[in-house]
Amino acid sequence: MRTIVVMGTAGSGKSTTGSRLAVSLSVPFIEADDFHPDTNRAKMAAGIGLTNDDRRPWVAALGRARAELSGPLAVLACSALNPEVRQWMRDDLPGAVDFICLQVSRDELSRRLQNRRDHFVGVSLLDSQQRALTLDRYVHVVSGEGAIHEVVKRLKAKLHELSIVTS
After folding, report:
1. Cβ(9)–Cβ(79) under 8 Å?
2. pLDDT at 120 over 50
3. What's the topology of domain 2-161?
4. Is the pTM of this model over 0.85?
5. Which of 60, 134, 140, 144 could hold 104 in an S-S bridge, CB 3.0 to 4.6 Å?
6. Which residues of 105-131 are buried (b: 16+ CB within 10 A; e: fewer)?
């Protein structure tokens, strides 16, 4: 069992890219935002960043959701901003977990967030998310800028390069 985590800050395109990647690979897609408890959503909607104490039960719920999927591969869209959260994901999700971070400029992230509607995370959290984003040896970076089909193409090329997918 293996999970590809498409990660990054708010506005990086992880949900759109992750869902399109899952379709192109014919595998299940998990949207991590769907597993936040109401208390987390309320904090973020108020512009308050989450603590790791807020994130721990959320990551455990993601592990349970992935375990319920029977397929050998799934795609998960999740911020996964810091190494501790990524370690929890490696501990809680069954099988191998691969992290691909969508790198997007601050100006583009701000533009995307200002234009986004009906989402609990807005531009007010961008600075704190960018400060929290810490990359390590477990994270591979792909540009998240440009047309979505190009971003997915770059992501698939990275997955092929890493021998994570072969089709």
Report:
1. yes
2. no
3. Rossmann fold (3.40.50)
4. yes
5. 144
6. eeeebeebbeeeeeeebbbebbebbee
